[in-house]
Amino acid sequence: MISRLDITPKALQLVEELEQKHGPLMFYQAGGCCEGTQPQCFEKGGYFPRMNDVLIGHIKDYEFWIDRDLFEYWQYAHFTLDVLDGFGPGGFSLETPLGKTFKIHYRLFTPQELENLEPVVRNS
């Protein structure tokens, strides 16, 4: 099965740092509003996905949810979690006090990949 989600080594290093400081984590990427579409990292249970939001995969063992409307737009794209120096538009994410911000790189799946994608889970 083809994964919908990946992580860069630099972002993985930050996730491990946040994990040591905060314990189990979770990720949520909204479709707009005050946090823009920046992926947010929370302590596990620190954010509650809405009905029909989509679990697209895991970073380590941590769930990565995206907004249901954002998924409709990006369902044919692979997500790669990366990190940049600086502050993103939201500031609610655990990496913000470290002067970092998570970012997603998107690429469209090939026709062959689309035939064998990992299934998603919708929040009910």
TrEMBL record:
- Pfam (any one): DUF779
Q: Which InterPro entries match?
A: DUF779
Supply the name of the protein: UDP-glucose 4-epimerase
Q: Which organism is it from?
A: Sphingobacterium yanglingense
Q: What is the lineage of its organism?
A: Bacteria, Pseudomonadati, Bacteroidota, Sphingobacteriia, Sphingobacteriales
